[in-house]
Write a structure and sequence with these properties.
Number of strands: 3
Strand order of the largest sheet: 1-3-2
Largest sheet: 3 strands, antiparallel
Order of helices and strands: EHHHEEH
Length: about 90
């Protein structure tokens, strides 16, 4: 799967508080490994398992294992669905 780095960061920033911990717990990973997946470059977590190719919007990220990304998107959808609807 290909996604821009900017899109990947936007997904991370759309996650509600505690989502990184939940994803890490559910996948039996270190929280920093999940943060690294979304573009952080810190240890002790594992480096992301994707390739970044230079390009617009931070470049194109080629992700082979989309498990973390899919969980993040699912959390965002669930959060949006449970948010109160405005009466406009």
């Amino acid at each position: 799967m290909n996604i821009t780095f900017k899109e990947l960061r936007n997904i991370k920033h759309s996650l509600p508080t505690g989502s990184i911990s939940k994803i890490a717990h559910d996948l039996n990973l270190e929280e920093q490994t999940v943060r690294n997946f979304f573009g952080a470059k810190k240890t002790p977590g594992e480096p992301p398992k994707w390739h970044l190719q230079a390009g617009p919007e931070g470049g194109i990220v080629n992700i082979n294992d989309t498990t973390i990304l899919e969980m993040a998107k699912k959390i965002i959808v669930q959060t949006d669905e449970s948010a109160p609807q405005s009466l406009s």
